[in-house]
Amino acid sequence: HAPYGHDATLTLALALYAEQLLLPHSRWAGYLQSLPNEQNWDGIALFWGAALHPDSDAVEARRWLSGTEAETHLLLPDSPRTPLLNDISSFYFSIAAPLLKRAGLLSSERGFQHAYALVSSRAFMVDAYHGLAMVPIADAFNHAQENSIHLESDYDVCTSCGSLSECPHDVEVHGDVSPPAPGADAADPENTCEMVVNATIAPDSEIFNTYGAKLTNAELLVRYGFMLDANDNDTLTWTIEEIWDAAGAALHDLRPRRWDDHAGYGVCMKILRDWQYDAGWVDSELVIDTEPNENRNPLYMTADGVLSHKLWLAIALAALWRQGMTTEAAEKRQLLTRIAWAQIQMEQGQTESRKEGVDEDDDDAYEALDRLIRTIGKLCTRRMDRISRINGRQQGDRGLGQHSATMGKYIDDLDSAQQKTHLAVTLALAEISIVESSVGRWDELTAIAQSRQNRHY
C-alpha cells in the first residue's frame, strides 16, 4: 500500500468511508460519530465550488482562489496539469465504488469526497507499517505554529507486522536474528503513539498541536479548511516560464520563444542547478539565501516580500538572455556575482562600491541590475492583476496599494454567513500585500539607481 502522499490519502479515505457506511455496526462507531459531518463543517477548500458542492458561498470562494498559491495545491503534485478533483473522482468510480458495491454498501461520490476531506484534514503519518492513519485523540487538537504538544511514534518498525522489536520477519531479511518469544510484541510498551508536551501549558489555555511546521496558509486552506491569522511560512511561487515571459514583457522582447527554446537554455539551467546558495546575501534585505528543499519550488518570495536566491537568479538569467546575452556559463556567473554585489551596495545607499570585483564604472552590472528590477516589477504587477479580481474584472490600472484597499473593502462588505468566501479573499489579500511590500522595496532601489545614473552622467 502507499504509506504517504495522495495515494495514501485515497486508500485511507476508502477505508474510512467503508467504516462510515457500516455505522452503527462499525467497531470504530464511537470515534466515527465524533467526526464532523457535512452539515456542520465547511470542509476543505479543495472541494469548494465543485459540481457536487455548488452552494453560492463555495462557488464565490473558489473564484477568489484562482490565481493564488492555493490554486497550485488543487493540482496533482506529480502531474501539475491534472486537477486533484479529477483524480479523486477517477479513483472513486474505478476502485472505491466497485469495492463498496461488492461489500453490499450503498455509496456516493459526495460521501467519498467527505471521507477524503476528513482524512486530508485529520490523518497523521504514524510509522512504516501503518503509514497514514486516523489517530483518535491526536486529531482533537487545533493547529498552531507555536504548538505545545506533538505526536510522537517510532517510524522504523517492521513493514510487515508493525513490530518495533525483533520479529519473525527479521529472519527473512537477516538470517542470524532470533525470532522473539510469543507475545513479545503485545507486551512491548514502545509499540504506541504518544502525545508529547514540548512547551509549558498555562492553566485553562487551549492546547495546540502541529500539523506540519512549514505549512503555508494556502496549504492549510486547501487541505485542512482553515488558515492562521498570520503565517510566516507563506510564500509566493513562480514557474520559470512565468519569469521568462515577464522578462520579455518588461524588456520589450516580444519574440514568442519558450524558455526551453533558445540557445542559452542549457547554460541557464546549469547555473540554476549548480548555484544552490550564496552567502553574500547576508548583507541584503531584498534577497535571502536558503537551504535547498526538494519538496518546495525554490523560485519563491517570502511572507516579508523577500526573494529567494533561486528566484533572483532565475530572474537575472531571464533578463540577461532576453537582452541577447550569450556568454559562457563561467563568464555569466561572474557577471551575476557582480550584479548581486552592485545590488547590495545600492541597497545600502552607497554610490560607490566597496566590494571586490564591482566598481562605479561597471556599466554592464548596473545595466543588468536595471533590467532585473524591471522584470521583478513586471512579475509582481502580473501577480497582482491575476489575483485582484472584483466581479471578474481585472484591476491592472490600479496603483500600488489600491489592490489591497479594494479587496479589504470587499471583505468588510461580506455577509457573515459567507465564511468560505471570507477565507478565500483573506488569502488573496495576504498575497497581494506580500507583492505590494516587495514592489515598494524594489521601487526604493530603483530611486537609488536613478540617482546613481544622474551622478554618473
TrEMBL record:
UniProt GO MF annotations: protein-lysine N-methyltransferase activity
Domain of life: Eukaryota
Gene3D superfamilies xref list: set domain protein methyltransferase, domain 1
Any one cellular-component term (Gene Ontology): nucleus
Protein name as catalogued: SET domain-containing protein
Source organism (scientific name): Russula ochroleuca
